[in-house]
């Protein structure tokens, strides 16, 4: 498992914990930003896993 993937799972955990702590007026914006960052992280992991590593080519 990619180490960044564990961070994404951690973000999901923090989001689930934070939902009870954030005021409803703040929650929409905050969760949207966090979910967007999570989606970008997942895409970055997929791209990194599918592309050949440049460090081994040298």
Mean pLDDT equals 66
Uncertain segments are: none
The quaternary state of the protein chains shown equals single chain
The assigned structural class equals mainly alpha
For the termini, the CA-CA separation is 25 Å
Radius of gyration: 15 Å
Question: Which percent band covers the strand fraction?
Answer: under 5%
Question: How many domains, as an integer?
Answer: 1
Helix content: over 70%
Q: What string gives the helices and strands in order?
A: HH
**Strand segment count:** 0
* Biggest beta-sheet profile: none
Please tally the helical runs, counting DSSP H or I stretches of 4 or more residues.
Answer: 2
* Coarse morphology: elongated
Question: What features would you describe in this structure?
Answer:
Helices cover 74% and strands 0% of the residues. It is an all-alpha fold and 58 residues long. It has one domain. Helix 1 runs antiparallel to helix 2. It is elongated and about 40 Å long. 0% of the residues are buried.
